[in-house]
Every structure is written in structure tokens, then in C-alpha cells.
Amino acid sequence: MSEARYHTALADLAVHIGVDAAALTARQELIIDGAAIALAYVDDGLGGAMQGACRVGAQPLPAEPPAGLLPLLLQANTLGPATRGATLGLQRSGHLVLANRQPLDQPSERLAQAWRDLAEVAAGWAAAIDQGLGDSAGPR
């Protein structure tokens, strides 16, 4: 599989979710419930994968986040249900991101579900952080 298979998977995904295939292939971005999910091809040595990544919340984390927040986010990466298998990361800008990779040989229904899950999990983490997750003082 190759980058050509990635573009085929994007087109199949577009048909499945009812969006313009040419536009999705050109932009490589889905907007699901307000979450912008950037899609990209990854040569994983196993036939290729589609990676989706989105920001968690609109604002970067504070320069000095609550003491308990970063260890909690790292721990979440080892707990399947907390991220539904995705990985939390921190961009240089301070934005928290959630990313996941899906094999290209999956049916478009599974890819669509994976990106819906990513948007839902990102929204859940954003809400938890806004409510003071990791901060002993509680909600902001």
C-alpha cells in the first residue's frame, strides 16, 4: 500500500460520510462537532496508515499548568478507554493534541468511527481541563 492507497481511502471515506471527495483529498481535514481533524498519510512499514490529529480545546495550556495535569495526561496515554487508543501530545505552541493512526485497509465505516471518536475524546478532555483537571484548587 502507498500514498495512492491513502488517497483512495480518503475518497472512500468522503463517499461514506457524504462529503465531496475531491475537497477532502485536497484539504485532508474533517470538521466533526467543531473539532478540526487534520489527516495525513503515514508510511508505517505495514501497508500505510491514516493519521488524524486535533487540538484539545481552543487555547494552549498555561505556561505553568496545574502540577497534577501533565503527569495525568501522560498516564492517560497508557489507558485505552481514557483516550480510546489515541495519544495525547503537546505542541511547541503549548496546544494539547490528540492523535490516532488507522490502517488504510480498514473499511471507510471504521475510519469514520475512528475520527468521530477522536473528536468526542478531544471534547471530553477539553471539558475536563476547563473544569480544573489536575488542579488541586478545582475548576477555573
Quick synopsis:
This protein is an alpha+beta fold. Helices cover 41% and strands 22% of the residues. The protein contains five helices and five strands.
Chain-wise SSE layout:
Blueprint lengths: L2 H15 L3 H7 L1 E4 L2 E8 L6 E7 L13 H8 L3 H4 L3 E4 L5 E8 L4 H23 L10
Antiparallel strand pairs: 1-2, 2-3, 3-5, 4-5
Helix pairs in contact: 1-2, 1-5
Give an overview in words.
One of its GO terms (biological process) is protein secretion by the type III secretion system. InterPro entries: Tir_chaperone. Pfam families: CesT. This protein has one domain (1-133): Yope Regulator, Chain: A, CATH 3.30.1460.10. It is elongated, with a radius of gyration of 16 Å. It has a 5-stranded antiparallel beta sheet. The longest helix has 23 residues, at 108-130. α1 crosses α2 (21-27) and α1 (3-17) packs across α5. The model has no long low-confidence stretch (mean pLDDT 92). With 140 residues, the protein is of the alpha+beta class. The chain has helices at residues 3-17, 21-27, 69-76, 80-83, 108-130; strands at residues 29-32, 35-42, 49-55, 87-90, 96-103.
